[in-house]
Amino acid sequence: MLKQKALSLAVHVVLSGALLVGTTAAMAYESGDVIVRAGAATVEPNDDSSRLTLNGAGLTNSRAYVDSDTQLGLTLTYMLTNHLGLGLLAATPFKHDIKAKNLLVPGKIDAGSTKHLPPTLTLQYFPMDAESKFQPYAGVGINYTKFFEEDVAGELEGVVGASGKLKLDDSWGVVFELGMDYALTDRWVVNAAVWYLDIDTDAKFNFPGAEVKTKVEVDPLVYMVGIGYKF
Fold first, then answer.
1. Given a cut of 60, is residue 119 above it in pLDDT?
2. Of 46, 77, 82, 81, which is closest to residue 179 (Cα–Cα)?
3. Residue 209 pLDDT
4. What are phi and psi of 62, to 5 degrees?
5. Does domain 2-230 correspond to CATH entry 2.40.160.20?
């Protein structure tokens, strides 16, 4: 529901900005400018995984799932030229619950949880004239995802009959970005943006005498709507 609201707002802002491109300019994006933005950021995984294995043996029709989360998103753009910017995406830590299907018992069970930070660096292209109030942009870059505070869910520990530990490997991957700023004043902007992050990780659940492993493709879309300030 939050994703749908964010997308609807983003579309509304973009269309409104497109209608107003020809109006009197209120700001200019120029070399050396810094634009700082903050807003609600939602990570929506397009998750997939390999079959879960138990002590090396594959479990039939098994897989892992990762749910979504919303946190405070922070972005920064440093304008290298009037049309090229260096963008940084940061956020407060995202927390995701992990479920497993057909792991020792039929159906889905709560398997664990993790937090992660996704610092992301992109080279952004701004096609409009520097004086335009409406500033769409596209970017490509690299993401590093740090997983931490991994925990095994009590439901899975109950199925196994023992306490366990969970480890998720950190990830490097490519990033694609689309966004827009629309000037409210010569300093304040409204912003909407979406990123695709290539995030892959190996998940290992360790119990006394038992190890469960799987490869997980998280590959989320990240949606953000917020407000920004140009320095």
1. yes
2. 77
3. 87
4. -100, 155
5. yes
Place 26 in a pLDDT band, splitting at 50, 70 and 90: low
Q: Is the CB of residue 130 less than 8 Å from the CB of residue 28?
A: yes
Count of residues making up the chain:
231
Buried-exposed string 111-125: b where 16+ CB fall within 10 A, e elsewhere: bbbbbbbbebebebe
Q: In this predicted model, what pLDDT tens digit does every residue of 68-84 receive, in sequence order?
A: 999 999 999 999 999 99
Tell me the C-alpha distance between 140 and 162, whole Å.
44
Per-residue pLDDT at 5 exceeds 50: no
Question: What is the share, in percent, of the chain residues with pLDDT greater than 70?
Answer: 88
**What are 156's two structure tokens?**
């899975």
Question: Which amino acid is located at 179 in the chain?
Answer: G
Render the chain in DSSP notation, one character per residue: -HHHHHHHHHHHHHHHHHHTTTSPP-----TT-EEEEEEEEEEE---EEPPPEETTEEPTT-EEEE--EEEEEEEEEEESSSSEEEEEEEESPEEEEEEEESSSSSSEEEEEEEEEE--EEEEEE--S-TT-SEEEEEEEEEEEEEEEEEEE-HHHHHHHTS--EEEE--EEEEEEEEEEEEESSSSEEEEEEEEEE--EEEEEEEETTEEEEEEEE---EEEEEEEEEE-
